Amino acid sequence: MVINVKDDNFPAQPKFKIPAYDPDVSDHLLYQIQSVTQGDWVLLNRTTGDLEVSPTLVNTGKPVKMVVRVSDGTNSATATGRILVTSVTQQMLNNSLTLDISDATIEGFFDSSYEELVSGIADVVNCNPDQVMLFDIQSKIIEAKTLLEDDISNLKIWLSVYKIDSSGNRFGFYNPEYVRDLIYINKVQISKLAKLTLLPFKDGLCVKEVCNFATSRKSCLSYSDYTDDSKTYSSLKVVFRTVGVRTSYRCPCSTDYRGENCDTVLNLCYSNPCKDNGKCVSIEASYSCICNPGRTGVNCEIDMAKSKCPAESKTSENHLKSNPCRNDGVCSDSPGRGFSCRCQGDDDAVDGPLCQLTTRSFMKGSFIAFPALKQRWRLHIKMEFATTEHSGLLLFNGRYDGKHDFIAVEVWQGQVRFRFSLFSHVVTVASNVNGGVIDGRWHKVEVAFQNRTGIIIVDDCKLAVAVNFGTQSASFSCAAAQQLQVKDEPATYSSLDLTGPLFLGGLLQLPVDFQFPTNTSLAASEMSTLITSFLT
């Protein structure tokens, strides 16, 4: 029994009926609680099977376990159940995601797939099933297109995933984008376990760039809010009370734009945030510091020659607040020389001074997945690679449904090319390096996107060369630029809106319903290659 309540607002005199069925309608069933972990919080009407739950359960955060016996006087049946009361807060809504399920009814879902879906999500997130909280479910009838077909019911489910500490206490939620990416990558596995068909993630209200205008820089932010439409569903196995939810959007200015029309750009490097003469690079909605040798940190604030490893009791200002060594590296103080990192595992895998993973080898069929790129208006990516393969994918970021916007960096017929799509318009920018790039040596590649223009630079070309000469017939072979030109359309489709995971080194083998249209087909995703120094 799952009882969701709106932000601690427990319903007045709630009653939930124990699901029991007797084919003999003349029988009178009697209900009895044989055992319960918190008996004073649950009251059962012996003749009607109505269960009353105390509002105190909202604050427990853990399910009440009980054993219920139902009898018609001659025959009886016993079942073990749980009651979980969850307060659906605004924080929970802000960290929620939706799943769409094809051809399923609400009752059928609760009878056959509810527990399995929760377990499948818990497996891929690596958490307990009790941390996966479903709080709303809605059904939509999809009318048949022909007389030979039947109408079907599709479901939409809202859920959040709690975080817990070592004592099992809740403290916040997993990032919904992180959970969505894991479900996306493991869609086939979860669908098989739950015996249902998960539909591709929908990109929501912002997919049509409703906040884009020719002269402004606005972000589209979707959000969820309460409705007064709360329902209780009952199947043979589950009683489920929903908290009604609706989804909407708003259009605030992007972080680095101001003004009534969001058309005034801010230079976020103006205050010189990078310490010790570090170079500040303005990027969309933020900045990035390129530190001088011996310095590290977001703002180059850490002097590696003077700083010391974190201590339980901070004895000097030079002690760091957290471990600077990545990938479980061990921080060690070096007298007179600051600190050093002792890396764990394969020495070839972590080759940076802070145990960074700077170089990865990709065999055919392998890839690494990262969260989606958030840059919409300006994008600049640098990477190095080495391969002997004729064609293959280096980097890809698109949308969950495989449609509309994407970026891809590929080796194609021995050359490097950069492809991007704005809504449904695809642009290809290709290099033409003498001798190609499939000689097994390290090659640098930079790609940039701004003002509907894609730029590619290979090895030692300069950005200015690509901008000034990349589109001319006598262009430098190692650089090129191409702008999207769309006739008879406003300049609203000018930003990248990427929602799915960023894939490096290869691409997930997607089901048929996730495949990309033929006009956006990618180079073969299976390629043996080395990639290093991936920067955005």
From TrEMBL:
Keywords: Disulfide bond, EGF-like domain, Glycoprotein, Repeat, Signal. Residues 265-301, 315-356 form the EGF-like domain. PROSITE patterns: EGF_1, EGF_3, LAM_G_DOMAIN. Residues 357-536 form the Laminin G domain. The keyword Iron does not apply. GO terms for molecular function: calcium ion binding. InterPro entries: Cadherin_CELSR1-3_9th, ConA-like_dom_sf, EGF, EGF-like_Ca-bd_dom, Laminin_G, Neurexin-related_CASP. Disulfide bonds join 291-300. Pfam families: Cadherin_CELSR2_9th, EGF, Laminin_G_2. The keyword tRNA-binding does not apply. SUPFAM superfamilies: Concanavalin A-like lectins/glucanases, EGF/Laminin. This is Uncharacterized protein.
